Amino acid sequence: MTAFVRHPLVARDAAGAFTLDADLLAKHFGWPAETLRDFMRRGMVASTVERGEGEDEGKWRLTVRCGNRRWQAIVGPDGAISDEHLEFVPLRSGRPAGA
81: helix, coil or strand? Predict the structure, then answer.
């Protein structure tokens, strides 16, 4: 697991949907931004947003996965990232090894 310094990686649009800065996210994955954008165009990037419940109400967990890399962040009600990390995880079957 790798920890990161907090920065403006996450924003929300007028509808409340989360948006991520692709250039900064690519750096977390250890790739040039164009590599991440290429993976995105090819449908090789998956993301999820989970809303906290109970004691985590008002927080969200954002997850972005591409190949064997998974970045997760906990975002508070003010939009600030309180925790984030990158993990190297087993490839899912059916995914190209270079993705």
Answer: strand
